[in-house]
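Check the record.
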Amino acid sequence: MSEVTFAKQFLTVLDSKPQKLPSDYVADPKKLATQSFILPRMSKTFPKSSESDPAVASQQPINATLSPLRKATDSPAPVTLTIQPKASIYELKTQLSQQTGYASDKVKILWERKPVVDSKTVQEVIGKDAGDVEFAVMYSGAPTAAPRASQQSLNAQQPIAAGANDAQSEQMDVDQTPVAQGQSGEAVLSTSQFWKDLQDFVMQRVRDKAVGKEAVALFEKAWKAR
C-alpha cells in the first residue's frame, strides 16, 4: 500500500468519527442540530484532597523508648515517651531531661549509632511509615536536678515527715518543762553588764561611738528616773 492510499483511507476513517472541538469552542446554540460533540480530555487532573490521603489521616502518636547507650549501674533507666511523629528531637530531649534530671545539653540522642540533629523531627529520622521506635541515648556528666519521679515521691513523703516532726515537738513540749536560769526581769537591767552589752549593740547598729554612748546613757537615765 502506498503512502497516498494509506492517507486517503485514514482520512476517510476520520470523517466517519464524531467531530471533536477544542476546549474554547463557542457556537450559536440555535444553529446546533442534533449533532453530537466529544470534548477533548483534560491534560491535567485535579489533585486529591489531603484529607482523603491515608498517610496524612493516620498521623497518630507513637511511643519512643530512650535507652542509655552504656549499660552501667549509674545509668538512668529506659524512658518511654508518647510523642507526635512531627515532634523535634529537641522536644524529645527536653522531655527526657525532665524525666532523668540530666540537662538537655548533656544528652545526645542516637539513631543507628549516629547522633541526630536537634532540628530534625522524629518522622524525618525514622521515616513516615515507622511506628514505635527505640533511640539510644548518650549521657555526659551527672544529673543536675532530681528526676520527676523522685520529686513526686519526695513530695508525697514530706507531709508524713512534717506530721511526725510536729508530733515529736509536741511530745517534747509535754515531757520537758523549760527551767529559767540566772537573773530575769528588772534585776537584769540593774547590772552594768546589761548596759555594756546594750551599748555595744547600739554602736554596732549606728556605727558611731559618740552617738551610741549618748543614746544608751539617755535610755539608762530614763529607766532609773522612772
In short: The chain is about 45% helix and 10% strand. The first helix runs from residue 3 to 16. The two ends are 148 Å apart (CA to CA).
